[in-house]
Amino acid sequence: MNIHAFISEKVNQAMLAVGAPASYKVQVRQSVKTKFGDYQVNGIMTIAKQLGVPSYQLAEKVISMLNLDGIARKVEIAGPGFINIFLDSQWLATQIAIALASPRLGILQYSPQTIVVDYSSPNVAKEMHVGHLRSTIIGDASARILEFLGHKVIRANHIGDWGTHFGMLIAYLEKVEYDGELEIELSSLNNFYRHAKKNYDIDPNFAKKARNYVVKLQCGDSYCLQMWRKLVNVTIVQNQKIYDRLNLTLSQDNIMGESMYNNMLPDIVTDLKAKGLAVESAGTTLVFLNEFRNKDGKPMGVIIQKKDGAYLYTTTDIACAKYRYETLKADRIIYYIDSRQHQHLLQVWTIVRKAGYIPETVVLEHHMFGMILGKDGKPLKTRAGITVKLNDLLDEALVRARCLIVSKQVNVDLIELERLAQVISIGAIKYAELSKNRMTDYIFNWDDMLSFEGNTAPYIQYAYTRIVSIFKRSTLNQQQLTGNVYLENEQEYFLAVRLLQYEETITTVARYGTPHVLCAYLYNLAVRFSSFYEHCPILNADNDIQYKSRLQLALLTSRTLQQGLNLLGIETVEKM
Ligand code: ARG
């Protein structure tokens, strides 16, 4: 149950009942301090001012109309007009039982939307680097959560598989195939790209051939298309290995690269011209947008076709957005791209709205993010000053996780050790990413992410294994857990409240694409469990009723931790 939504609804009903206009909304929040109850209503003071009545009096009237019978044990006014709500233990206990009885932990499915999630989207003939890590990991968590809530999620991997640089890449592919060096060259796509570029820069004959191949490729020449396909395939296969290593839900079926929209581009340009949105100026086609201004204050011109006929990244994104609405029938389109492309997206959206390609009812969102920085505060690089490749990063994480497990003397055989190292390393990297507010840059730090203390994956995974071990030592199995749940102790009570805030947490994450909110939730849940376990003996409970009640709380905690981590794309293990 979404307690937050329920209380908000009730409070707003009470506001209407006391005569406040419907547009005057108060905010309900989870209380930060326990003395303020479990939820707090804010905003009464502002509304009282607007209505010209004393705020305390308004708060009193709202409380008299507020029907939280059975749910709240106490509702009180704090300060000049805050309302503090304390939940009722018995009601909480009933909700715990309901959650435990359901495989979805009592979480409802919402009226389903079709949601396109654009994420990962690396470029062909280049290796994925840490820059793609955020989009890939946050996008995947977001897709999982939306799907869990019942939406139809279409994962769109908008790979950069088209553009004029393919002339150079094809010419180089041809050269290394001829020289018999294909294998070596393709083993490192970054080198391949660099060598191709070098040949292009220093060898005029090579450059001429490359330019010729650009034209041929665009005209659908079968040889060039075949060579292009080869490059795309090699990249896709390499990337898929990384996706699988990272335990992502992305597959090759999700690839909808730039090339897919190529055939639509001429019509888009013609249409934008016919609608008077695009104009030609000295052979270049542009859309002038009043919403964006140049340095000199004039409307900005966004180029959609160059003099030589080539289309741009923007043109492709216009076609792509149109396709997602018209063909994929998206109600909502979310882009996980770094913040440097924000203006680009805003321009694309302004154009698709003006052209009438996408109605206002369809939501377009840029869930942007900052950069991953090294300890020096600059974009993360290797010691040699090169951008860190994802594969190398994952290798290092694995080595570090193995050392960590060995140093902790976890009693496992070699096969288990490998599996554990995998789960811990991938979990740590993903969680480090997911637990930060995506809007900010963050400093990459191995020690922090692999720590068993604090807001880390190992801490939460470990909390999960502790509960597993309680059940191993208990005489009861999960089916035998009958009887009521009793929240007698304050630790039991606070654990129960937190457990029941799971739904509102994932609803928030689904709405704003902020997995760090779920991370903070799971971390806090693990902390509350720890304090509960310390103060409320389970296996040595006073009596059978208490024993079963506490085991039920432990069980719901372990299920919530496990499901929550899974929604983030992180696995659990039974012992560590
Ligand atoms: N390939 C781009 C890059 O690596 C990201 C593409 C994001 N998606 C989009 N629809 N533009 O920067």
TrEMBL record:
Is the Ligase keyword given for this protein?
yes
In what residue span(s) does the DALR anticodon binding domain sit?
460-576
**Keywords tagged on the record:** Aminoacyl-tRNA synthetase, ATP-binding, Cytoplasm, Ligase, Nucleotide-binding, Protein biosynthesis
Q: Which residues form the Arginyl tRNA synthetase N-terminal domain?
A: 1-87
Q: Please indicate the residue ranges that the annotation assigns to the motif 'HIGH' region.
A: 122-132
Named from the GO MF annotations, one term is: arginine-tRNA ligase activity
Catalyzed reaction equations: tRNA(Arg) + L-arginine + ATP = L-arginyl-tRNA(Arg) + AMP + diphosphate
Main localization is cytoplasm
A cellular component term from Gene Ontology for this protein is: cytoplasm
GO BP terms: namely: arginyl-tRNA aminoacylation
Q: Where is the protein found, in the record's own terms? A: Cytoplasm
Name a Pfam family for this protein: Arg_tRNA_synt_N
Q: What is its EC number?
A: 6.1.1.19
Q: How does it assemble?
A: Monomer.
Q: Which family does it belong to?
A: Belongs to the class-I aminoacyl-tRNA synthetase family.
Q: Which NCBIfam families match?
A: argS (TIGR00456)
Per its UniProt record, what PANTHER family does this chain match? ARGININE--TRNA LIGASE, CYTOPLASMIC, ARGINYL-TRNA SYNTHETASE
Name of the protein in question: Arginine--tRNA ligase
Question: What organism is the protein native to?
Answer: Candidatus Palibaumannia cicadellinicola
List the gene name.
argS
